[in-house]
Each structure stands twice: as C-alpha cells, then as structure tokens.
Amino acid sequence: MKFRKNNHLLYLTVVSIFLVWFIVAFLIYPNINIVYHTFFADGKFSIRAIEKIFTSARAVKGLKNSFLLAFTIMITSNILGIFVVLVTEYFDIAGSRFLSVVYKIPMVFGGVVLANGYLFSYGANGFLTRMLREVFPQMDPYWFSGYLAVVFVMTFACTTNHLIFLRNALMNIDYQTVEAARNLGAGSFYILRRVVFPVLKPVLLTCTIMLFQTGLMAVSAPTMVGGRDFQTIGPMILTFSERTSSRDIAAVLSLILGIAEMALLYVSIRIERKGNYVSVSKVKTPLQKQKITNRGINVVIHGLAYLLVVIYLLPLLAVVLFSFTDRYCITNGEFDPARLTLKNYMEVLTDSAAYKPFLTSIIYSALSALLVIVIVLICLRLILKYRNKATALLEYLLHIPWFVPPVMFALGMIITFDLPHWIMFNQPLVGTVFIMLIAYSVVMIPYTLRMLKSAFASFDTNLEDAAQNLGASGIRTFLQIVLPCIMPVVLAVFAINFNGKLSDYDISAFIYHPLYPPLGVVIKNNVSNNIEGDAQALNLVYSVILMIISSTILYLVYGRNSKRKEDI
C-alpha cells in the first residue's frame, strides 16, 4: 500500500511539473513576451510601434478592412446559414435531403482548398471567367478579387457552425409550442419570428460571435482572392513577421486582434447573462416540417434554395472534373472528355516531391490531434478528481487559446523562441519540426477540453468506485474502465481535430519548417507562384484527396452511429 502511495505521489509530481512547464512555456509566456517586445523592445517603455501603425496608410487600411470584413461576414454568412438550416430542417422543401448534402460541402471543401476552388472557377484563368470573356471580350479577367470576392468566398465557407449547432438547436425545439401558436391563428413566418427564433437566440449569438472572429482573423481567403486592393490584418502580420525589423508592427497588429477578441468575448458573456430565452418542455414532440402556404413565397424560396445549390456545386465539380484532365485543359479552362487522364493522380501518389506535403500534413495533424487529447485527458483527470483552487486555475488557463488570435499566438512563438531560451532548455524552437506540432496542439486545447469534459460528465462514476474498491490502481482504472466508456467521444474529437488541421494555412504559414511545408502552404504557394500548368493540376488533386479524407472522417463521426452524434 505504501509503495502504491509513493508511486501515485511520484506520478502527480511528474505530471504537475510537466503541466506547469507546458502552460507557462506555450500558453502564458509567448503572449506576455509579445506585449513586452512591443512596448519594451529596447528595455524602456515606448509606444513607437503604435505610432508606426497609425502613420502607415497600409496598416490603417488593413485594420479597417479587417473590421469591415468581420462585420460583413457576420451579416451575410448568418443570413445564409439560417436560410440553409431552415430550408433543410424547418420548411417542407422538395428535395431537402439533396439540399442538405450539398449545403454540407463547406465541411469538406473549406479553407485554402475552397479559396483555390473559387479561384480556379472565377479567377483570371478560371474556366468560368474564360467562358464569360468569350461573350464579353472587354470584361476584366481579374473581376473576382478584392473585398466582394473575399466576402463571397467566406460567406459560403463559414456556414459550418450553423449546419452543426443551429441545426441541432432547431431539432430540439418542442413541436407542441409551434402547434399551439398555429392553433391560435399564427402564420408560419410569425411563428418563426416569435416562437422559433427566440429559442435559437443563444446559438445564433454564438454563431455570430464566431463569424466575427473568423472574419477579423481571416488569412487564407484575403491572401488568395483579396488582391492588392483588399489587404487585411492577418496577411499583413504574416508579411511583417518575416522581417525582423518590422516584427514590432506585426506584434501591435496582433495585439489589436487580441484586444478585439477579448472585448468580443466579454460582450457576448454580458449579453448571454442578461438574456431571457424561451425554454422548451422536458418531454419534447419531434419537430415537423412546416409547409409554406403562400404560393409565391414558396416558389421564391425553392428558387433561392436551388440557386445556392449551383453556387455550392460549381467550384467543387470544376475541381473534381478538371483534376482528371491534362495541363492544356487546366491552363485554358476547357473541359474535353477526350483529354481525361489519371496522370495527375499518379504523379501525386508516386512522386515523392508531390506527395511529401500530403504526408507532412497527415503526420502533423495526426500527432497534434493525439497529443492534445493526451494532455487534455490528463488535465481533466486532475480537474475532476481533485476539485480545488489549483485545478480550477488549471481549467481557466487551458482556455487561454480562446482569448488569443491564432496569428498572435504564432507570432508570439516566433518572437519568443527564435533564439535559444532557458524555458526551452536553451534550445531554439523556430526552424525546427516541433514548433508547428506544438502550435497545432495548443490552439486545439479549448475545444478538446469542452468536448471531453462533457463526455466525462456523462460517465457513471460508480463503475470507477467499484474498480478501486476491488484494488485496481487509479491509472489501471482509468485505462480499463473510464477510457473505454468515453472512447467514442475521444475518437470523434480526434477525427474532427485531425480534419481541421489537415489543410491548415493560417497558423502553418507563420511557423512551418522550410523543408517540410504542409499542404495548405503548398496549395497557396502554387496559386501565387505558378497558377497555370502542373502546379494547378497538383492543387486540384490535393483538393480532391482532401475532400475524400474529410468526407470519410465526417461519415465515421456523424454517419455511422447516431449515438455518437448525441455524445458530441
């Protein structure tokens, strides 16, 4: 018994030392250091970096563009997200199952891959642009760039939260409340406005905040389709961080993002606390789809629903079809069935230079998804077993990445670890293969913590008590009793984290190893450096394979087991 207690004490000591080092080194110190580097670059307090920002027309314009994009996306993507959920889950629309599948395309065709798809379709060398120029020869080939192009791409890319969270909230509405309002003579749209939307208000608020954050911190879409006329903060921070002399400007810009992030979260918490939301009954009647009685409105909504299908499908189909064509078809935007070939796929699958970025992204995504789950499981074990001030502080600290924009975190890592540092045992981290693995893992901690904590909440602790009463050690009880019970959620979170980082560009662009560029960086560089020919062909194949992987993962997470969907 004494030996077991000593082992347990040793385990707690080792774990505690590791967690303290990890949190200080990667969650706290880089963020503090970026503030110090900004205002105490020469050892004395100075606001010179702030003066540089507001005397730079480019930087001021970038700030304005970022906030403009954030407010615009908050409106446009919210409208689109609400619409697609309503036409697939609330209103009785012909072909709603088909619509539901099409509207989920951004879940497997997003980020830098989606931006590349829209560029291939609507860009200067896109097939649709070439078709339009045959009809309108004077048309500007670079029409799809700038503010409106970025808004268009991000509006259709940012509806995934609506498809997951808003849809689930809508399906949980008690149909009895809807039926009661109808029996009192209320019309369909009055019920929607006065009965349904009040219940959905908390989820809509969350989606709105997340949209604002996404627009404010966007990197891939403004970089790829923004052009010179519409530059936002994210790409500017990336550009400034590449030069040591301008890193102070990048630091100030990232701090502005961080302040905006914290202010937004504070406002959202205040609104949620003051909110008075309609509750639903404990015994729910499943929601039934509502018919649109007004014939004219019904036709308009059906028309809009299927117009969106065209917009969603066009880039995806173009990417898939042209990935099987040769260089001539891709360069000239002409689809010729006679030129169909598997050469592009064979090159990616057999040429080490072509498939190396794929392996790099898969390895980084898998290892970071596994690492963050291990760290969070250890933390949750301590938080739930030892409820005290230390574990409460631990839980708060693990939410730091939610308050820090990814670009600010990446820049903090660069500034802090570009030289040997005592907290990293006098070893530099920038320029190594480990920095991106750490960055991927850190930014995934808050989401992983929330999901796995909910899984622990549904676990029957009597099973654990019984195992310990039978003499099983704490570690053995966790591995053989607790972990198998929550394994479905663990696997689901692993899959979602893996999927989310597979084509990452926003963080990777700052800290990737030059010899091991991940897929998101390679796709973006191919667009920037060689939009025609073989590079674009590789991008198309990369996109198709990524969609296959993402679709498979989503099917395994959401499609095979409805119980797993409830656990998530």
From TrEMBL:
Origin organism lineage: Bacteria, Bacillati, Bacillota, Clostridia, Lachnospirales
Subcellular localization, as worded in the UniProt entry: Cell inner membrane; Cell membrane
Family: Belongs to the binding-protein-dependent transport system permease family.
Pfam families with a match to the protein in the record: BPD_transp_1
Protein's membrane topology: Multi-pass membrane protein
Residue spans crossing the bilayer: 9-29, 67-89, 101-122, 142-166, 203-225, 249-269, 299-324, 362-384, 396-417, 429-449, 478-498, 540-558
PANTHER family in the record: INNER MEMBRANE ABC TRANSPORTER PERMEASE PROTEIN YDCV
Record-given protein name: Putative 2-aminoethylphosphonate transport system permease protein PhnV
Alphabetical keyword list: Cell inner membrane, Cell membrane, Membrane, Transmembrane, Transmembrane helix, Transport
Gene3D superfamilies: MetI-like
